[in-house]
Amino acid sequence: MEIMTLITAMLPIARRRLVTLDMVAPVTEAAKLLSAPNTNLVIACDSGGLMAGVLTKADIVNQISHCTGCGCVTAIADIMTRDIIKCCPEDKLRDIWEVMKNKALRQIPISDSHSRPVGLLDASDALQVLLKEVEYEEDLLRDYVMGIGYH
């Protein structure tokens, strides 16, 4: 019996990690958000609240090196990554973990069916849940082999 956690189970913590910003906001505003502890990704949204791109600390550092630091008026739309790798609440956590692992992503946006951001899945949170799944499966197998039966 394989346990399949869905992304929807991760939404409570993923909602707390979600940081969004209007895509016309200046890079300096994104830099302020990204300077907060445990904030590594900002989701840029269009005027309708739909995901338009993502922005990382590396994007900010790269841009600041080209302009005059806090005087930078470049909009995040000009430097964000528009090709968003995302997941949906109905996706299986194990499948999304494989995507994160293969693409070396620490975080991945979670969107609803209309492409509105609803959370940000962090690799450490996903890994904790997946490890608990494996431990539970091992317990089930051990109990079965020992003749105790299933839980």
UniProtKB/TrEMBL annotation:
InterPro entries in the cross-refs: CBS_dom, CBS_dom_sf, Diverse_CBS-Domain
Domain CBS: 80-138
Keyword DNA-binding: no
Source organism superkingdom: Bacteria
A Pfam short name: CBS
UniProt keyword list: CBS domain
Name the record gives this protein: CBS domain-containing protein
Taxonomy of the source species: Bacteria, Pseudomonadati, Pseudomonadota, Betaproteobacteria, Burkholderiales
